[in-house]
Specification:
Order of helices and strands: HHHHHHHHHHH
CATH class of one domain: Mainly Alpha
Distance between the termini: 37 Å
CATH architecture of one domain: Orthogonal Bundle
Largest sheet: none
Shape: flat
Strand content: under 5%
Number of strands: 0
Length: about 270
């Protein structure tokens, strides 16, 4: 019978060594080739947009997800049902479809509703009428990613909060701590150790899913690659560089998050 044993903590990460070697070889190939260097220069212009979209959308999604999680754990049946409705509906819609809906249906509907509510102020000349074009495609993409990921992140927060020992919460309550202080000083510091790994995975996943914003014309890494490939017909070279940049970002982030997770674990169990 075949038996397996868990890998030793001291096992050398050969996969990482191989990945680093391939990354260095690719970097040397890019530096040695005028064509690859040109492609890399063009495509890398979208890196800042990719990072901006990811960081802003993930920050907003985390804040919204935490609020939804607290609603799901509240004592109000109405709030729990609203949170459950939000999570199930949003998780059932693909991110790409959500991007299109927010960009071409949700934002125009919001602008129309806003103008209807603010009509008296607009007639008095206090504010100008809002136009659909006033909401850039970049921010429409960020809103869509925020809404899409908040449903998944809320489940991460809910599971992490529920994993905290109920006895400690009751002890904090017996000491007279307010609900906010119990959450800040007792619940969240312990829940974060459970939340961090899946939250980090969601962050890395958002880096990859941020490539979907290229369908709206946002000048991220993927969009810059599409533009260059369409003009030069160098599809192999262009999308190889696009994949290379995304791998550098995602693998680097994964390693950083794993190091942070190990540090937290050692802080918990010296």
């Amino acid at each position: 019978m075949l038996t397996t044993s868990p890998p030793s903590q001291s096992e050398f990460p050969w996969w990482l060594a191989a990945a680093v070697a391939l990354a260095l070889a690719a970097a040397l190939a890019i530096a040695a080739s005028d064509l690859y260097s040109q492609v890399f220069t063009v495509v890398s212009r979208g890196v800042l947009i990719t990072i901006f979209v990811t960081v802003v959308a993930f920050t907003l999604a985390s804040a919204l997800g935490l609020g939804i999680a607290l609603m799901a754990l509240s004592g109000s049946a109405v709030l729990r049902q609203v949170a459950r409705f939000y999570v199930e509906i949003i998780r059932g819609v693909p991110v790409l479809v959500l991007l299109f809906w927010i960009a071409f249906a949700g934002v125009p509907a919001f602008v129309a509703g806003w103008n209807a509510l603010a009509a008296p102020l607009q007639e008095a000349g206090l504010i100008d009428a809002l136009q659909v074009r006033d909401v850039s495609l970049l921010w429409r993409a960020i809103i869509a990613l925020t809404i899409g990921y908040s449903a998944f992140i809320s489940e991460v927060f809910r599971a992490g909060i529920q994993a905290v020992d109920r006895g400690q919460i009751e002890a904090a309550k017996a000491l007279g701590l307010s609900r906010y202080r119990r959450f800040r000083h007792v619940v969240m510091p312990q829940a974060i150790r459970t939340i961090l790994p899946p939250l980090g995975n969601d962050f890395v996943a958002m880096v990859k899913d941020s490539s979907l914003v290229s369908v709206l014309g946002v000048a991220d890494i993927t969009q810059m690659g599409k533009i260059y490939a369409a003009g030069s017909f160098r599809f192999f070279e262009t999308y190889s560089i696009v994949a290379y940049i995304y791998l550098i970002l995602t693998v680097g982030l994964s390693l950083a998050l794993r190091a942070l997770e190990n540090r937290l674990r050692k802080g918990t169990h010296p």
